[in-house]
Specification:
- The longest helix is centred in the C-terminal third of the chain and has 29 residues, at 442-470.
- The protein has helices spanning 3-24, 41-50, 85-96, 160-179, 201-216, 237-247, 294-305, 308-328, 363-370, 381-391, 442-470; strands spanning 28-35, 55-60, 65-70, 74-77, 99-101, 107-112, 130-134, 137-142, 145-154, 187-188, 222-234, 252-258, 261-267, 270-275, 278-289, 329-334, 339-342, 346-357, 378-379, 402-407, 412-416, 420-424, 427-436.
- The two termini are 45 Å apart.
- The chain is globular and about 65 Å long.
- The strands form 2 sheets. Strands 1, 2, 3, 5, 8, 9, 10, 11, 12, 13, 19, 22 and 23 form a 13-stranded mixed beta sheet that branches.
- By secondary structure, it is of the alpha+beta class.
- The chain has 2 domains: 3-179, no CATH class; 187-236 and 270-470, Anthranilate synthase (4-Layer Sandwich).
- Helix 2 (41-50) packs across helix 4, helix 5 packs antiparallel against helix 11 (442-470) and helix 6 packs across helix 11.
Length: 471
C-alpha cells in the first residue's frame, strides 16, 4: 500500500464525515486506520513527552501488546460525584454517526482518581478526577502487526484535504521527535538515599495503630492506608518505563503525560476486563517479601498461604468482588483457593474471578461498582472511604484508581494504578498502601509499603547508574 493511497483513504473518510456533519448540524468523528512500520512505543512516548505533547501509553509486555496515543480528538469526563456510566453513554452517542474506515475500533484511554469526590491538590492539578481521551493519533503494536489510527472531529466547514495533510504532518513530527536524541539523563537534584523514606515512620505507624484500633472497635472490617515519598529528581519517563517493561513483563504498563506531569507505573492488578461477553477481575490482597533464594522464597510463599491474617484480608476482597460480579453477570466462577502471584520484590495472594455478563451491561458502570475494591479502599466501603478522607492526609490522585481503555464495542480493560509514581518538574512522588485488618502490625505494614515502593525506586536507581556511567 503506497503513502498516496493511504492519504486518499484518509481524505475519503473525512469527506464522508463532513457530509454527515452537514446533515446533522454537528461534528462527526472520522476514524481511519492504516498499516505502518513498527516503532518502539516507549521511545515515542518519551520523546513526545519531552516536547510537551499529551501522550498516553498502555501495554502488556507479556503478550507484546502496546498502544501509544498522541493529542486529543475529544475527551469524556464527568463532574465530581457524577456517574461514570454517563461517560460511556456519551461515547456511544458520538459513535452512532461516526465514520470508521479500516480494520480497527476507536479506543479511549485514560483514568480515574481514587476518590473522584475530592478536589485535586496542586500536585495532581494536571489530572482531572475522571477523563477518557480519544487520541488524534494512536499507534497499536500487536506481535507481528502494527497500525496507525487517525481520529479527527469533522464539521461542515472542515477542509478535508488540509486536515489530512495536517494529520500526516503531525505523524511525521511525532516520528522525528523519536529520531532526535532525547535528554535521557536522570539526575538526582539532592543527595538522598533512594531507599530511605522521607515519610516519618513513627507518624505513619501511629496512623496504622489508630486504624487497627478502629477495626477492633468494629467500626471497620478493613481499611487501606497509603503514604507517599518524594524525591528531587529530573527523570525521563522512558527510562523508567523500559526498566518496568523488562523487569515486570506480566504487569500492566501504563503512562499518562498531561501538560507538565506524567503518571506511570506497572500494575500487577486487573480491576476489570470485558471481552466477548465475559467480565473478569482478580482479588489481589495479602503480601509477603520475596526470598533471597528458592528455598527461602518457597518458605515465605507457604507462610503467606497459611497466614490467618492475610487469608482473612484476602477473603474480604474476594467476597466483595463476588457480590458485585453477581449483580452484573448471569453466572460467576471463582477459584476455591488463592494462588501466589510472584513479582520481583513481593508476592501476593491472588484469586481470579469471572462471569458471563448480563445483556446490556455497561463496562464503566461495572468499573464504578468495583472501585474502590476492598484491596485499595476497605470494608464497609463507604465507611472506609470516609476514614481515609479524614485520616490519611494524602491526595492519592490517580494512584490506586482505575486506568485503562474502552473501545467502540464497549469492551475494555482497566487496572488498578499501583506500583506507580507521579513525575512533575524536578520531582518524583512515589505511592504505596497497605491493607489493615485487626491482626495488622505497624512495623510489618511499614516494611510492606517500603517493598512496594522499591519497584519505582529500583527503576530510578538503575537509570541513575546508567547516567553516571555515561558521564
Amino acid at each position: 500500500m503506497t503513502v498516496r493511497f493511504e492519504f486518499a483513504g484518509l481524505k475519503q473518510c473525512l469527506q464522508e464525515a463532513k457530509s454527515r456533519a452537514k446533515h446533522q448540524q454537528s461534528k462527526v468523528l472520522a476514524s481511519y486506520s492504516l498499516p505502518c512500520h513498527r516503532r518502539d512505543p516507549l521511545a515515542l512516548f518519551a520523546a513526545n513527552y519531552q516536547y510537551g505533547r499529551t501522550v498516553s501509553l498502555w501495554g502488556t509486555p507479556s503478550s507484546d501488546y502496546y498502544s501509544v496515543g498522541f493529542g486529543s480528538a475529544c475527551e469524556f469526563s464527568c463532574a465530581p460525584g457524577g456517574s461514570w456510566s454517563e461517560i460511556q453513554a456519551s461515547w456511544q452517542k458520538l459513535l452512532v454517526s461516526s465514520v470508521v474506515i479500516g480494520d480497527h475500533q476507536p479506543v479511549l484511554c485514560g483514568g480515574f482518581a481514587f476518590d473522584c469526590q475530592r478536589a485535586p491538590s496542586p500536585l495532581w492539578k494536571d489530572f482531572p478526577p475522571a477523563v477518557l481521551t480519544l487520541p488524534e493519533l494512536t499507534l497499536f503494536c500487536e506481535e507481528n502487526r502494527s497500525y496507525l489510527v487517525i481520529n479527527l472531529m469533522v464539521s461542515s466547514q472542515t477542509d478535508c484535504g488540509l486536515a489530512a495533510e495536517r494529520a500526516y504532518a503531525q505523524w511525521q513530527s511525532i516520528l522525528s521527535c523519536a529520531l532526535t536524541t532525547p535528554n535521557n539523563d536522570s539526575l538526582l537534584l539532592e543527595e538522598v538515599d533512594l531507599y530511605n523514606s522521607n515519610t516519618d515512620p513513627v507518624v505513619w505507624q501511629q496512623c496504622v495503630v489508630d486504624a487497627v484500633a478502629s477495626i477492633k472497635r468494629n467500626e471497620l472490617q478493613k481499611v487501606v492506608l497509603a503514604r507517599s515519598d518524594s524525591l528531587a529528581l529530573n527523570c525521563c519517563p522512558g527510562d523508567i518505563l523500559e526498566y518496568l517493561r523488562d523487569h515486570y513483563p506480566g504487569a500492566f504498563l501504563f503512562a499518562f503525560a498531561r501538560k507538565k506531569s506524567c503518571f506511570l507505573g506497572a500494575s500487577p492488578e486487573r480491576l476489570v476486563a470485558c471481552k466477548d461477553g465475559r467480565i473478569s477481575t482478580v482479588a489481589l490482597a495479602g503480601s509477603a517479601p520475596r526470598g533471597k533464594g528458592p528455598g527461602e522464597d518457597d518458605k515465605l510463599g507457604l507462610s503467606l498461604l497459611n497466614s490467618d491474617k492475610d487469608r482473612f484480608e484476602h477473603h474480604l476482597v474476594v467476597c466483595h468482588l463476588l457480590s458485585i460480579l453477581r449483580k452484573h453477570c448471569q453466572s460467576v466462577w471463582v477459584s476455591d483457593q488463592p494462588e501466589l502471584c510472584k513479582l520481583k520484590q513481593i508476592q501476593h495472594l491472588l484469586t481470579p474471578l469471572y462471569g458471563c455478563a448480563k445483556q446490556g451491561v455497561n463496562l464503566l458502570e461495572v468499573l464504578s461498582d468495583l472501585h474502590p475494591s476492598a484491596a485499595v479502599g476497605g470494608l464497609p466501603r463507604q465507611k472506609a472511604l470516609e476514614y481515609i478522607r479524614k485520616n490519611e492526609n494524602l491526595d492519592r490522585g490517580w494512584y490506586a484508581g482505575p486506568v485503562g481503555w474502552l473501545d467502540a464495542r464497549g469492551e475494555g480493560e482497566f487496572a488498578v494504578a499501583l506500583r506507580s509514581a507521579l513525575l512533575t518538574q524536578g520531582r518524583v512522588t512515589l505511592f504505596a498502601g497497605c491493607g489493615l485488618v485487626e491482626a495488622s502490625l505497624p512495623t510489618h505494614e511499614y516494611r510492606e509499603s517500603c517493598i512496594k515502593m522499591r519497584v519505582i525506586r529500583d527503576a530510578i536507581r538503575s537509570v541513575s547508574l546508567v547516567a553516571e556511567a555515561a558521564e
